[in-house]
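S.,

Sequence below, as promised.
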Amino acid sequence: MNKYISLTKVLLKSGNSSLKTYKTKKYKGYLLTLLIVIAFLPLAGGLGTLTARIFDILLKIHQEGIVLGISLPIVSSVIFFLGLFYVISVFYFTKDIETLLPLPLSPSTIVGAKFTLTMIYEYITGLILLLPVLLVFGFKNNESILYYIFAAVIFLMIPVAPLVLASIINMIIMRFTNIAKNKDRFRVLSGIIAIFMRANYNSY
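The prediction came back faster than expected:
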């Protein structure tokens, strides 16, 4: 368990960099993480504002529960879609495999740490997309503390099934394709998809 926790921390700090050089890039990584969080704050704020407006509209017809009914499946779908890219990036495209294999680590420890790292990425996605919805709905609907406890449980559980499914699909894809031999093309495709999704979001 100690090895699993330690390896997860190292992978989280090193990101996609080589484990041999992650210490020299540690502070740059912290700064980059801070900048990414700041960059996504307007998106989270926008989702919170949109949720409040939709809640007010649905409240007039006593159907405010639709807010959660729509948000949870949408967020699960986004987490699944992003999970496809997260899993390939963390499990197949990182530069740490050659460093990890000679170490006294069991395969289950390595796989578990990498899966946990991917899960952390999904929780960050949930913080941006789902947390504003849950908080705004609870505030607007004057929910009790029990709601926030259940909301926390839902937040923790939602990424699990989509990420497991994404992992299984990626294992099948990597077994029968040669994506690993075309990392640059995959990264270009990922960038194009990300730009396309961002453009669609802005259009709304």
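The radius of gyration is 19 Å.

Coffee later?
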